[in-house]
Amino acid sequence: MTPRLDMIGLVVSDMAASLAFYRRLGLDVPAEADKEPHVEATGPGGLRIGWDTVEVIRSFDPEWKRPEPGADRVGLAFLCDSPAEVDALYAELSTTGGGTAHREPWDAFWGQRYAIVLDPDGGAVSLFAANA
């Protein structure tokens, strides 16, 4: 059997804040999950995203250390419907949406409108759309 990518996991310091941020990106996570130490959501293609508190991770890996913000080895990228949506979502997430501004929207040389916002734990989240 060939292994297949099934879940992307994120370690979070504040479950409620992290889930609120990702709900604004369209992930369907019930409100009662805010108090759980481990949460999962399944996307339309079956890929799961999971959130674990630092305490859960340290329960099986006591020496785990948080990377510096912006120094992630894994980044999430969300496809937007238009360049205007990239701009609007970046503005929302980096002001009232629980995220932190990292790289303001720009027209990338590869033909996309692109921006990067940091989630509540400093993880890089890219927002992109094809330039018309």
Topology:
Layout (H helix, E strand, L loop, with lengths): L6 E6 L2 H9 L14 E5 L5 E6 H7 L15 E4 L3 H13 L4 E8 L4 E7 L5 E7 L2
Parallel strand pairs: 1-3, 4-7
Antiparallel strand pairs: 2-3, 5-6, 6-7
Explain what this protein looks like in three dimensions.
The structure is a single chain. The chain contains 3 helices and 7 strands, in the order βαββαβαβββ. The chain is of the alpha/beta class and 132 residues long. The chain folds into 2 domains: 7-60, Roll (2,3-Dihydroxybiphenyl 1,2-Dioxygenase, domain 1), CATH 3.10.180; 76-130, 2,3-Dihydroxybiphenyl 1,2-Dioxygenase, domain 1. The strands form 2 sheets. Strands 4-7-6-5 form a 4-stranded mixed beta sheet, with helices on one face. The chain has a 3-stranded mixed beta sheet with strand order 1-3-2. The chain is globular.
Give a short overview.
With 132 residues, this protein is of the alpha/beta class. Helices cover 22% and strands 33% of the residues. The radius of gyration is 15 Å and the shape is globular.
